[in-house]
Structure formats: structure tokens, C-alpha cells
Design goal:
Blueprint (H helix, E strand, L loop, with lengths): L2 E4 H10 L3 E6 L2 E6 L4 H5 L10 E9 L2 E10 L5 E4 L5 H8 L2
Antiparallel strand pairs: 1-5, 2-3, 3-4, 4-5, 5-6
């Protein structure tokens, strides 16, 4: 089953949370999540720690984005593919299921 999220919710997420960004190229949509460093998460300020980036790619179909693939990319560009089921809670938060 294809996982779909409302396009409007993705726009709201990107506008509300600076850790997220989105790149659109035609119907291709890439959501990029830059998690906070441990120091930022603990409220002690930024550090120079290299952090992995989560990339989620989908296709825009009208008012929804159909998610196709996701991976975690480290600072060296190494990628670890993720199964979309690993994003289930995130998807639920956007679809209010």
C-alpha cells in the first residue's frame, strides 16, 4: 500500500519547524529533516557534531504526496535505506490517523 500524506500538512510542517525543509522538482518532492545535535536537544547550545540527515522522497499527486523511499544520509554521504514502515508514527502525525 502506498503511504500518502497531505501536501498542505507538509508545507505547514516545513513552515513551523526549522529542522525540516522541502525541495520540489516537478512532481518529485523531497522532505529533508536535520535533527538537532545532542547539545541542542538538551538545551545547552549548538555543537559541531556531524549529524545524519533523513531524506524522504515522494511524488505529488494533487493534494497528497505519495511517499516512495526514505534513507538516512551521514556526513560522508553514506546512505542507509529505510523501509517506509519505519516512518509510521511520523506519517500518522501528518494524517491524523
Amino acid at each position: 500500500m502506498d503511504e500518502e500524506v497531505p501536501y498542505k500538512r507538509l508545507i505547514e510542517l516545513v513552515n513551523a519547524d526549522p529542522a525540516y525543509s522541502m525541495v520540489e522538482d516537478g512532481i518529485r518532492v523531497e522532505i529533508i529533516f536535520n535533527p538537532p545535535s545532542r547539545g541542542e536537544a538538551m538545551g545547552v547550545g549548538e555543537d559541531e557534531e556531524e549529524r545524519p540527515v533523513l531524506r524522504i522522497v515522494g511524488e505529488r499527486r494533487g493534494d497528497v504526496v505519495v511517499l516512495r523511499e526514505a534513507w538516512v544520509e551521514d556526513a560522508m554521504g553514506e546512505r542507509r535505506r529505510m523501509d517506509l514502515s519505519e516512518l509510521e508514527l511520523w506519517i500518522q502525525s501528518l494524517t491524523n490517523r
